[in-house]
Amino acid sequence: MVSKEAKTVERAAGPTASDLPEAYLDLLKKCLLRFHDGAAFPYTTESGGESDQRLAYLAGKGIMPHVQADTMVSRDRLDNIQQATATVIREGVPGDFIETGVWRGGSCILMRAALTAYGDKTRKVWVADSFDGFPPPTDKYPSDPWKGQSQDIIGTMGVSLKVTFDEVKDRFDRYGLLDERVEFLTGFFANTLPNAPIEKLAILRLDGDLYQSTYEALEALYPKLSVGGYCIIDDYFYTMCSKAVDDYRREHGIDEPIEAVDWTCVQWRKTK
Description:
By secondary structure, this protein is α/β, with parallel strands linked by helices.
């Protein structure tokens, strides 16, 4: 029988070997969000004020991320990415992972970390973005409201949604996750996704905001999503994004139920 004192020492020693993948990914998510245990990490520039629980709450919900965060998504959405990666790896669903529209790369960084944490040595993570803002407006997609506006849209933190390729690449490198299993697709989706050298996908995560970016990604990549794979839509809250998703699903007879991840993100698993 293990004594009470021994159990206390065991708990104090930290996670066991079987706990390490979850502990690693949990710590990574806190770093990506820049908050821990209800408090935001202190700012290291003058662009932000003092951190407090309110900022951590807003960051955790994906409403107003920490100004230095590597991701805009909520903690629930990061947990969703982890759950999806763990499931497809455990169940052997074939295919790589991709996010279309990556901002500073946080969601893709988590995907790459999950491959290491769960011992997958074969899949790749595809990082697709123009790294130059939104595509120019076009009459082909009248649902998008950006006509006459700058492609360099300012987000909720007062910073640009346009992040350079070098900056995203550097963030992967800082986490020790930049290697040959991270593939970048640089350019507007209409030019890069249709001919991308991707055979199969197990996770298709869309974060393009607009009708055009969402529809073009579905059109090019959904046929490559394996049965059992996850289609995750980050911006379903936005009318132009949800319209693109609904139009594509209707046109292609997709009837798998849509599940809420949080207040703006949804997903479904491909069953046929």
